[in-house]
Amino acid sequence: MNKEKDEIKKRLKKFMPSEQKQSFVWLALSISTVSFFLIVAIRPTIITIVKLNKEIKEKEEASLLLDKKIESLIKAQKVFAQNSQKIPLLDQALPQKSEFPLLFNFLNRSAEESRIELSSVSFEKIVLIAPISTSKTKKTAPKQTIVFSATAKGDYLSLKNFVTLLENSRRLINLQSTQISEPKRKSEGTTEVALQLAITGNAFFEKE
Amino acid sequence: MKKRINEQILLMAILGLTIVVVWIYTSVFKIIDQPDEKPVLTPQETKIINPQLDQEVFDELEKRSN
User: Fold this and answer.
1) Which pTM does this prediction carry?
2) Which of A142, A140, A141, A146 shows the shortest CA–CA distance to A94?
3) Is residue A85 part of a domain?
4) Strands (DSSP E) found in chain B
5) Chain A contacts of B21, Cβ < 8 Å?
6) Are residues A145 and A112 in contact, defined by beta-carbon separation less than 8 angstroms?
7) A137 touches chain B (CB under 8 A)
8) At what angle do helices A100-114 and A156-167 cross, to 10 degrees?
9) B3 touches chain A (CB under 8 A)
10) In a domain, A83, yes or no
11) Which of A1, A55, A176, B51 is deepest in the core (most CB within 10 A)?
12) CB contact, 8 Å: B5 with chain A?
């Protein structure tokens, strides 16, 4: 009976691995399982957590920035309300359109005030109605200046006064060049010294 | 020989685990460093206007002729 038992044990031992071998297999299996779950479950979870954290941080920063912006807008609104009566002054200084008739009127009035004779005034080509832009045509940035030139006759002090008036105009004007010259006298006998002034400049307006 | 094979399997498993851990670590840092494709706010939205107004401008404008 005992012999039979021993024989069965021997046969079983052949099929059963040793304890060390078993532990190796278990350890390898455990490590493989951990690796598998790291790839399949842990990695996507960690990545999602990191992404969400990053998003939360960015949105918090954006929220702070927007809060600041709202605060500054409220302040600006108050300042605007306080100075609402003075806003037309800004419109006069920087009109929304080219407003060249007003500019011409101003030049004319200034000439009258300075007692000079305004010989000619010319403006650059002005587009009153912008053409409808199609998808094929490139959209160009609208111009914000209107170029004008004027010539006037008068004595030196009057011409100087005229230039000063232009420089002190409420509307934003940039005088590019002023040229004073002495025209040829028709008759030698005249004592009056009439000078000729040529001015070119830019008048600014807000982008439409 | 059989013992060696077992050791090699274990070694491969440990190596695999190490690679996986390093891979996860690098991919996390890659996400942190990578800039966003779509920012939360557009550049126009991030502009903050200055609410301070120079009152002298109005006084100066009033003095000038129109």
Assistant:
1) 0.58
2) A146
3) no
4) none
5) 38
6) no
7) no
8) 140
9) yes
10) no
11) B51
12) no
